[in-house]
Design goal:
The protein is built from 9 helices and no strands. By secondary structure, it is mostly helical. The protein starts with 11 loop residues before the first helix and ends with a helix.
């Protein structure tokens, strides 16, 4: 006799929360990686073709599970715009949202990558601080304690990258 086994099949709502949770967790650690198009494509596909129970998504956002609720709402809003089906505040809840400019984030990324290799330290710094500034995150924190000279260099590079992003954005 063979017993029938049931496998867990996550719902579209669960997958959408999963996508935003991981995108924002990666963004908090490294915004240059967390705010890449590949994360929004996951969300866009789910918004476009999935059966989303928005009350479930709202509850998970409000629980604090996904990090900053404003940023989570902005992420979902950007994913829905990418899908061509913008969602409204009824779906997202009553709280504030950080309006993410996906087009501007991607344009910044293309501008930097057209001038610097993806492995270049300055290029990585520009990508990181530009993405963090665009979505309102604080500058990147060092992974380990730095000596005074290294910390001064890190702060100067961070400030220079944010100024470069600000100048680029001003010229748009």
């Amino acid at each position: 006799l063979v017993e029938e086994q049931h496998a867990f099949a996550p719902t579209d709502s669960w997958l959408l929360v999963h996508a935003v949770t991981h995108a924002l967790a990666d963004a908090d650690e490294r915004a240059g990686a967390g705010f890449r198009l590949r994360y929004w494509l996951d969300g866009a596909v789910l918004v476009l073709g999935g059966e989303i129970r928005w009350e479930l998504v709202r509850d998970r956002i409000e629980s604090g599970e996904v990090g900053d609720p404003r940023l989570a709402r902005g992420w979902l809003w950007a994913a829905s715009r990418l899908a061509g089906q913008p969602i409204g505040m009824d779906e997202l809840g009553t709280g504030d949202l950080t309006a993410l400019q996906l087009e501007r984030l991607l344009a910044w990324r293309l501008t930097v990558l057209s001038r610097y290799a993806g492995t270049d330290r300055w290029g990585r710094k520009l990508l990181e601080e530009g993405a963090r500034a665009e979505v309102g995150l604080l500058p990147e924190r060092p992974w380990k304690p730095l000596g005074p000279i290294a910390e001064l260099r890190r702060r100067a590079a961070t400030r220079a990258a944010r100024l470069a992003w600000g100048w680029w954005r001003f010229r748009l």
